[in-house]
Structures are given as structure tokens and as C-alpha cells.
Amino acid sequence: MTHNIHPSEQLVYIVDDDEALRDSLIWLLESTGLKSLAFESAEAFLAAYSAKMNGCLVLDIRMPGMSGLELHEKLNAMHATLPVIFITGHGDVPMAVSALKKGAVDFIEKPFNDQEMVSLIRGALAEDLKHHGARLQEADAQRRIDGLTPREREVLELIVAGRLNKQIADDLGISIKTVEVHRARVMEKMGVNSLAELVQHVMISAPKHE
């Protein structure tokens, strides 16, 4: 089965081996105007997964083959940002609580209330939009830094390190006037009006260490 996924579109990805549950969830989401895509196994979702996916993942905790928990751990290892809601049976609550500690957004017990499920999914989609906005900001800040000349980047690093224009001039062996010109260009290219904004942009673009 092939899945055509538009990368910028928010979809609810349903992963459950129970065909009746998949169908009822698809119908429920369609009736509330939400688009979804269903997979019958964790392996099938993993094969289709892309870091560009937007939306959220509704994941059965217990499935033949790879379990929902194992899929969640694999996605975590890939630094996936898709918010995850687990569907659990009565005896699986301790497992679901453990998944929450590993970053899952929420879990819901079968049989679940339709409105509660839609409410959880809408919350997860809002969370995903927040992540998406942060990723766009990060990419924009990095693109702006990449657009600086090597000398402008040196000046940027020294500004962010808290060096004054005179100190930067001494560090780089250039005149204060030249530092002022570079500084003005850095501010313009980074699209900021203050030192505080400049520092924020540099922090946003900095690589995240796990």
C-alpha cells in the first residue's frame, strides 16, 4: 500500500492492527474535518515515516510484531517531533505512564469516548504546530547566519560573546569604524534591531545537544 503524503499538511497518523478501530477513527476524524492516514502495523508506519511529516500519531500500545512502545522508542531515537497519543487496553496503563515519561503527549483507554479522543488529537496537533513554528524559526536563523561573510561571522561571534566595538577592533586588527560597518551589516542581515534579539537568533540556530 502506498501513501501519498504532502509534507506540509497536518495529518493524524493512526497505527493500529484492528481494522474496525482504524476505520471508525478515520470516520470520526473526517466528520470533524481532520485528515488522517491509517497503517496496520508499526513496521508499515516506520517504512513511510519522514522527518517532514506534520500532525500527530495515534498509536496502539500493543500490536503483533513491533509494539507501539517499540515504535515510539525508535522515533525518539530518530529525534522525531510528532506528538504521540497511545491507545491502551485496561491492563496497559502502567506501560502508557512509562511512555508519557519518554515524551508521549497522552494516552486514552479503550473503549474511548469519541469527543475525548478528538479533543486529545486537537491538542496534539496544536503542539505539533508549535514545534513546526520553532523549526521554521531555527531554519530561518541558520539561513541568515549562513548568509554572513566570514568576517561578519567573526564579528557576530565577538558581539555575542559580549565584546565592545573597541575590543573587537583590537581582536581582529581592524578599525573601530570598520567594526561599526560590519556590526550594522550583521544586524541588517540577521533582521534584528537589538543586541538581545541578535543573541536570541544565535541561540535558536545553535545545534541542540541531547
Automatic annotation (TrEMBL):
User: Has UniProt tagged this entry with the keyword Hydrolase?
Assistant: no
Pfam families named in the record: GerE, Response_reg
Query: Taxonomically, which superkingdom?
Result: Bacteria
Q: Which SMART domains match?
A: HTH_LUXR, REC
Q: Which InterPro entries match?
A: CheY-like_superfamily (IPR011006), Sig_transdc_resp-reg_C-effctor (IPR016032), Sig_transdc_resp-reg_receiver (IPR001789), Tscrpt_reg_LuxR_C (IPR000792), WH-like_DNA-bd_sf (IPR036388)
Q: What are the HTH luxR-type domain coordinates in residue numbering?
A: 141-206
Instruction: Tell me which UniProt keywords the record has, alphabetically.
Output: DNA-binding, Phosphoprotein, Transcription, Transcription regulation
Q: What is this protein called?
A: Response regulator transcription factor
Lineage, top ranks: Bacteria, Pseudomonadati, Pseudomonadota, Betaproteobacteria, Rhodocyclales
